[in-house]
Amino acid sequence: MSSVEDLELQTRIAQTALDAARDPSVSVSSANPAQHVMSPTGNSRERQMIINRTATANTRLSSRRAFFYRYVLDKHYELRFSGVADDIFSRIRHRVDTHIGSIIPDSIKKFSSVYENLQSGNPEDWSNAVHSCRRILQDLADAVCPAQDDIVNVVKGIKVTIKLGADNYINRIIHFVESKTGSARFQDIVGSNLKFIGDRLDGVFKAAQKGSHHTIVSREEADGYVAYTYMLIGDIISLAKS
After folding, report:
1. 126: closest CA among 198, 228, 221?
2. For residue range 24-38, what is the model confidence (pLDDT) as tens digits?
3. Which of 73, 100, 134, 205 is deepest in the core (most CB within 10 A)?
């Protein structure tokens, strides 16, 4: 595959070759009036071949330039979007870091451990970062809704027992959210996110206890768990501070 530089060189050489292949200005005549005189055939065939080669090179050059343009444009928007996402997460992180110490002081050390584990190249450290997220949510549950006896709610005429014991940290956080806000939509969003991240964190934790070889998570998964944990804590802290 020819590079852009090669194609540009080909077009410049073709232009020079085309100039050189011009027919000279020649006048042909004969002193014999009965003689039929023909003009030289010239270089029309050579010029046509040069024109064809130049057209092919220009087509390929346009294709290369269009590819580079699309690539650069895609990267521009990718980096621009990445910057927006970084700014959003930075604001969430700042809000969490500013207030979390007053609610769960020990979490600061745990988050420091999370950062160190995510920087590691060892997959086991990434799993440890996930376990730290689980412990931070447990600490948050203990702070905003300490373990207590189970309660019974009536949902659509059916009695539902809500477990709020020491191990039911997700239920306790959801119970706290429900007690602090009258927005059903907010409760649904936070509750569904909590259940999702809680189930995932518990799954990794329980598998690790059993010695499963499938407990190693990828760095991308660990990053996602940490980001989810941060956003959830940001939402809950906003309620706890209100």
Report:
1. 221
2. 665 555 556 665 555
3. 100
